[in-house]
Amino acid sequence: MVSRTTDDYQRMARAGCVAVTEPAFWAGYDRGTPEAFRDYFRQLTVVEPKRAARFGIDHYCWLCINPKEAEDPGFAREVIQLIPEFLDDPQLSRNVLGIGEIGLNRNTKNELLILEEQIALAVQYNQLILVHTPHLEDKRKGTKLILDALKRNGHIDPGRVLIDHVEEHTIEMVLDAGYWAGMTLYPDTKCTPQRAADLIETYGHERLWVNSAGDWGPSDPLSVPKFQQEMRGRGHAAGVIEKITLTNPSAFLFQSRNGFATQ
Amino acid sequence: MPAEHKPNAPATPPAPPYTLPQLLDRDFLPHRAKLLDLAAFLDRCDRTQPPSPREGPGEGAPGSGNATTDSAPTDPRLPALLSAIALLTDNHPNRTQRILDALSDPTTDPLNAAPQSPVLGVPQNHAPLTTDH
Q: What residues of B are in contact with residue A112 (Cβ under 8 Å)?
């Protein structure tokens, strides 16, 4: 929510949102120094929880260098070296759910190298993993490369990994491999509330959840309530809707080493 | 037409809690409007000026002059879109997945470096779709 206004927190609280899980992501520009990431990680671990708490919302975050800024391995490694100081500090790690959103952007060898090193960091610190899959024409290929990288590590429990941004052509390979699949909802591009409801109807309710995109581009933090409205409009039972939007996310996030508790 | 069973889906996927008439009553008009939006976009492509010599894919070069017969050969977006539209009416299920597959990079190896060109939403070397399933 670092790129959203406080009004968004207010609207989310009014719509029934009880918790936010914010990944470390690309901020719309490439940061110039590793120190800029230290400031960003403090924003995620210190500033945003206080801002969200004003509206009764619990704030949690994920830490990493995102794949879009991972093309320079030397730079990326300097950022990765900052992460343990946040994981090792009991105060700073209180709202950290794990390592994410790691993944691929343009499916390059350097991005893959840094992905593998961040997977290893997550294993070393027994952290949950949140994976970002590439956009548009790069998504299918990138999702396959990511699943291969996770498998190569050899120490990954698929039940502790959420592969996000699945769509109709990638959801099956993610679920078949035992991972959780996330559908981040956008108003126009990527997965809409309507298509997410279609995927639920096709693939069932297990290891699947939806979340609202709340980034610097066109996105809508109230996408989850709109998904709930779409499901209700189609006649789905309240229990199914709650499972996808609350019970499933909670079941996954309760595995976090640092603790996760919704109101 | 029957829905195709997905391998990972529940063995017997429950039918959704709505009938076709109910779905049409609820969602037909918005999708009629989306169809007209798509048609109007193609008409708009037809009306565009020829691109300047310096314009290339991803640099704001939508112009084809004629969307249906005279697409700019260097920009794969419009041909890919027109090919994908054909999948809507081929009477086979899983249209969304098949369109996404058709618009995906078909290669499998990681790249040596990030491409200078932006993501376009279609493979950089779009090949026309076949109708063979």
A: 110
- What global pTM score does this model have? 0.91
Burial of B31 (0-12, 13-18, 19+ CB in 10 A): exposed
The reply to whether A108 touches chain B by the CB within 8 Å rule is yes
Chain B interface, best mutation among A137, A200, A206, A207, by max B CB count within 10 A: A137
| In a shared domain, residues B67 and B28 | yes
Q: Which pLDDT tens digit goes with each residue over B24-42?
A: 999 999 999 999 999 999 9
Q: Is the model's pLDDT at B2 over the cut of 50? A: no
| pLDDT more than 90, % of chain A | 93
B16 and A137 in contact by Cβ < 8 A?
Answer: no
Claim to verify: residue B77 and residue B94 sit in the same structural domain: yes
Q: In sequence order, what E strands does chain A have?
A: 19-22, 58-63, 96-103, 128-132, 161-163, 180-185, 208-212
Residue keyed to tokens 């070069």 = B61
Instruction: Give the count of alpha carbons within 13 A of A100, CB side only.
Output: 24
Regarding whether B67 and B24 lie in a shared domain, the answer is yes
Q: How many domains would you assign to chain B? A: 2
pLDDT digits (tens, 9 = 90+) for B77-133: 999 999 999 999 999 999 999 999 999 999 999 999 999 889 999 998 765 555 444
Domain enclosing residue B80, as ranges = 73-104+125-129
Residues of chain B with C-beta less than 8 angstroms from the C-beta of A171? 8
